[in-house]
Specification:
The protein is an alpha/beta fold. The protein has one domain (about 5-245): Aldolase class I (TIM Barrel, Alpha-Beta Barrel), CATH 3.20.20.70. Helices cover about 50% and strands about 15% of the residues. It has 11 helices and 8 strands. It has an 8-stranded parallel beta barrel with strand order 1-2-3-4-5-6-7-8, surrounded by 8 helices. Strand 3 (about 70-75), helix 4 and strand 4 form a beta-alpha-beta unit. The longest helix is centred in the C-terminal third of the chain and has 20 residues, at about 165-185. It binds pyridoxine-5'-phosphate. Pyridoxine-5'-phosphate binds near residues 72 and 155.
Length: about 250
């Protein structure tokens, strides 16, 4: 059984800073504390509208992060240019809509046009030597389309699992497990994330094929009360415990 990596998404540290357009709290300091707490990587989403993370943050994180940077981005030429210049260890392509509060679902790979746009972005990132991941729903067709593009990994969207309860949640969890198996059988690494919390992370962490979780809001929320280092350590402990129980 492979260990599971915890990548901490620090976007919402920047959200608090941008609420006042000042210079604190600094996501660069947050990344340092997350690493001290045991984060295996730092994830940031540079949105086109720059609502939280700014170009300056990514530039500095590229110089200071000791683990690795996972840059989430939409497949637009401006952001792809920046990614190819900065060369983060990993880039995760995500859909982006101006009005959304947060990423609402996986990439739409159901049309030839949609697949071609993502395939072009994957090609550009790969040519720059960047490991590629696609944020998709745990849907067979999307997983197969991703594998066809030759991506290194898919990040399965856990939002539906997180937002449901009882029988419905069990169904969503089973779907994540089946999706993870399918991706692995096609030679694609499996990541997961969105909406994961201290309360619901256990069953997802117990899916053996998933190697990496991306978690942001819940950790940053807890950090307001406990500090970021402790909040990350607690999440890492929960993940390790769920993994050992397998
Ligand atoms: N994975 C992706 C692709 C995301 O867009 C986000 C949110 O930015 C996350 C994971 C983290 O989600 P959350 O903040 O709900 O933990």
């Amino acid at each position: 059984m492979k260990d599971m990596r915890l990548y901490v998404n620090i976007d919402h540290v920047a959200t608090v800073r941008q609420a006042r357009r000042t210079d604190e709290p600094d996501p660069v300091r947050a990344a340092f504390l997350a690493e001290l707490g045991g984060a295996d990587g730092i994830t940031v989403h540079l949105r086109e509208d720059r609502r939280h993370i700014q170009d300056r943050d990514v530039r500095l994180l590229m110089e200071t992060v000791r683990t690795c940077v996972n840059l989430e981005l939409a497949a637009t030429s401006e952001i792809l240019d920046l990614a190819c210049e900065w060369k983060p260890m990993q880039a995760t392509l995500v859909p982006e809509k101006r009005q959304e509060v947060t990423t609402e679902g996986g990439l739409d790979l159901s049309t030839a046009e949609g697949r071609a746009a993502i395939a072009r972005a994957v090609e550009r990132l790969r040519a720059a030597g960047i490991r590629t991941s696609l944020f998709i729903d745990p849907d067979d067709a999307a997983i197969r389309a991703s594998a066809d593009m030759g991506v290194d990994a898919v990040e399965l969207h856990t939002g539906e699992y997180a937002n449901t309860r009882g029988e419905e949640r069990r169904g969503r969890l089973a779907r994540l497990g089946q999706g993870a198996s399918l991706a692995r059988s096609l030679g694609v690494d499996v990541h997961a994330g969105h909406g994961l919390t201290y309360e619901n992370v256990g069953p997802v962490a117990a899916i053996g094929e998933i190697e990496e979780l991306n978690i942001g809001h819940s950790i940053v929320s807890r950090a307001v009360f406990t500090g970021l280092e402790a909040a990350v350590r607690e999440m890492a402990t929960l993940i390790r415990r769920a993994r050992r129980a397998l």
